[in-house]
Structures are given as C-alpha cells and as structure tokens.
Here is the input.
Amino acid sequence: MNRDAVAAPDPADETADDRLSLADWRRRVADLYSEVRAMAVADPESAWRRWREIREWLFREHPQSPVPAAERSTFEEHHWPYDPGLRFELRVIEDEGEDAASDARGALPAASPPGGGPGINFGGGLGTLVLPISTGGERSFSRIGWLEVPFAAGARRLGLYWMAGYAGGLFLPFRDATNGDQTYGAGRYLLDAAKSADLGGDAERRTLILDFNFSFHPSCAFDPRWSCPLSPPENRLDLPVEAGERLR
Here is the structure.
C-alpha cells in the first residue's frame, strides 16, 4: 500500500510523529494481510472483500494514506468483480540463468549471480536486476525464481524478486494490457513485503499464493510525489488481467 520500496518525500524532512504514524500504518497493513491469509483458506472472496473494506478505510482516514489529503474524504476504490479463476498456488521455478531469462516474454537477460545473495533462495541461481524508480534513480533486486501462471489464454511467466537492503523481502510487480487505460500505466503490484503484501504459501513445497484479485496500485498511482519501483520488461504480460484494483 503506502511507502513503496523507496519512500518519498525525503525521510530527512519527517518528524517523529510522521514516523510513528508510518509505523502504525505498517502495523495495520500487516494485521490486515494476516487476517486475509487466514480467511482465504476457507473463503477467498470474503477475504478479498475484507481487504477492500479495510484498505479503502485506510486510504480515506489514515494520515499516511498515499491519496492527497484534499481528496481523501471522497475517495472510493474501484475493482473488478472477484474472479476465482485468477487465484493460484504456484511452485517457484528455479532460475536457470541467462537462457531462461531470454526465453521469457519481453525478458531482460540475467546478470551474473551476486557474490552473496539474499536471505532466501528457492534453489536456483540469482539474476540481478536494477529497476527504475518512478521519481528517478534505480534500486537493485535479485531474481530468485519464476512463476508459471496458467492464465485461461495460456501460461505466462513472471519473475519473482528479492529486494536489496537491510530487511529484504519478496516483490512481484507486473504490467498487463489494462495499463494506461483501466489501470496505472506503470503497472501494479501483487506481492510486496515492504508493505506486508503477502498472500501466503508453503516454504517446504516452495509455493506461493498468487491471487490477482488482490493486485494493487503503487503509491505513485495516487500522487506522483511517492517513489515506486517499476515493473521490468520480463514481467510485462501481453494479455489483460481484469482483476484487482482499477482506476475507474
């Protein structure tokens, strides 16, 4: 939700109250995703409705909302209806290096594996990507594997990333054919550990839950003062993903 992997405005301008407020936002979002994961075991659609309800309340009421303050009182989120066919539990596929990357739709070739790597590895080599940031600059990520998504129109592959930095975390952005019209032009996020956006999975079976009904816009979609990592070419889908958050 708020505070994407790179934050704006300049953290040096923030007060102690700002940071306590941000801590409260993160706590609430983490609690929400914990509740959603538990609910979705029996009823994914009810979990999605709860996610929408609390997310919209936070956007209207919380001081850390990415929505400009003047627009919060009338803010209303827009979503496609829930589609159970767009919820998957998928095994993370080993990253086989440059050859695998070059075979992916619109892919960037993988770089040489970094010397250390992140604190998690699903068994494959690690490709290093430097993603552009919406307000300028760039940020490093490691590709830790791939997810083969069995869309109705045919399977498509998405890269799964681990964020560089102190805490790290999973990150899965994507673009699709709705961008620039029905959704934000730079794409949406599905998983983002920086904001506790984690739908669950099974570490022993090396699986993750991908439910595209929970796709959400980065903070910069609401206000350009926020800084957001952009989806790489290898995660640009050539089909519309008509699920999750939309602009209208």
